[in-house]
Amino acid sequence: MPDPMIEHLIEHRIAALFADAGAIGRLHAVDIDTGRQVAVAADEPVAIGSVFKLPLVVALHRLADAGVLDLTEAVTLATGRTSGPTGIGAMRDPVTMSLRDLAHLAVSVSDNAAADAIADRIGLPAVAETLARLGLAGTAVTQLCRDIAERTLADLGTDPAALTDPSALSRLSTLDPGRTNRSTARDCTTLLTAVWRDTAAAPSSCSAVRRLLSLQVWPHRLAAGFPYDDVRVYGKTGTLPTIRNEVGVVEYPDGGRYAVAVFTRSASTALALPRVDAVIGTAARTAVQYLRA
Amino acid sequence: MDLLQHLRYFVTVAEELHFGRAAARLHMAQPPLSQRIQRLERELGTRLFDRTPRRVALTESGRTLLPEARELLSRADRLTELAQRRETPPAVLRGAVPPGVDAAVVAAVLDGFARSRSRTRLRLQEIGNAAQLRGLADGRLDAAVLQLPCDTAALVLGPVLHRPMGVVAADSLLPAGAEVLLSQLNDHDLALFRRATAPARYDEILDTCARHGYHPPTVHQAGSRAFGLGLVMAGTAVTFDVARPQPAGLTWRPLAGQPLAERLAPAWPRTGHHPDVEAFAEAAARALRPAAQPPSRTAPHARPVLDILPMPEDRHA
Asked: Could you identify which of A18, A168, A199, B149 might form a hypothetical disulfide with A25, taking C-beta atoms 3.0 to 4.6 angstroms apart as the criterion?
């Protein structure tokens, strides 16, 4: 039986870690096998940024399970597609690849062009259907990457300095959970738990999604909190001005596995804030250590 | 039973841990207070306090329920506050400026606002960022001048007021010349505020110092401006401040290239805000006399931090 006082203390400690890094944080961590949990503002709606690519690829796999589409189906991304800093989003020429390889790029390097191509193929109602089936009432995916980019351009204009101007950012609708893709820390760990328990989709599909999350390249957030070669960290990040997120699963060699979702909002508008990136890992480790004690 | 009223009794006793003092704070006698706490304990089916003749302590239930009770009460207060505001059009704007603002600035904010809005009175307070944010969130403040950086979700910000900071040092300490480079301060300790009061601002200042080649051997975290200035007077440290008169024996010099600035922004709630917030923002902006931001700022390099947005370079392409 978890002691409410100790649980309260650990949640207080995690909130203090976020504050010390100059950020506000929401966290939910849950032991996938026992259901023990740590929650810090875990039910507050948050703007999720690229974390929406996780429910997107889960929805894609559920459609494949239902026989609606074939994951090896080839899709051509012409020029003029969604742009972004990585993957096909940063490339110049037409690309043809399978839906499952698009899913790989959308998760492993957060490729915007790949994610939008998948969303164009399956439609946002299919994502909503997946969210409803999995009981994620606090989650909504209403915008593609190109919608978010367009909205940002409309709200901020073309001056790159606006990306770090606090006054301009206070007008940015894509930072407002009420007006962009949103979720809660608890909803995200619920989704990850379903992927790890093979209930989010067919077992082979859940396994494929787990593989994608294990191939994500960014080491600076969740993974930075677990500098142990025998501990596996799976994750999907999300980033917007002042917003740094990551949701994922941490697996220990003794079989312990923990779904963790961390959402932060920094006080500073600077783009390079390694302390806030790192506190995502530190807060997650503090929660997981408590769950393992 | 009036649950909210009983929760108020509970929170007050929990804060005082003494029935006599709590009763005095609530302007009531001790016996009825004790009876009401017992009533609440019966209603909730759990003991909130352990009482011995010599001390009162929260039980584990009491400790668990205390934050919940506070949350409920603050929401109830906000409800009443919002209802009252809808009922009577406000003739008062409740504004705030950060501590340490000069007297002349305070006077100029009040004067500027009175000139532009003769029918609304500005009630101005001097409070720190954290209290300002709480006040804006729970409706006790209509507008505030926030010290950046700070978390401003759910707020609208007026233009950022950029006030360049210079270095303050004992008269004999600074190298000759009109402006000082941060790297020229290298042998001197630095006096700053306590990091815990504003970690993001503290880190931003030290990161900027490092970026420009100033690595203070020791950073003294002063609890007050007076203590920090004391260290500076003694020649132990230097500190940073906006251009303003300094105590005798101290010199203020601008920093070359304006690497450091105090940044303030008027702010108000995104929804249901007071009709005169813009007038407050304008009065504050005029009174604080911001300088133009130095033009030579290079565009921020975003790769690969903003994973969902096109790169600024792409936008130029």
From this structure: A18
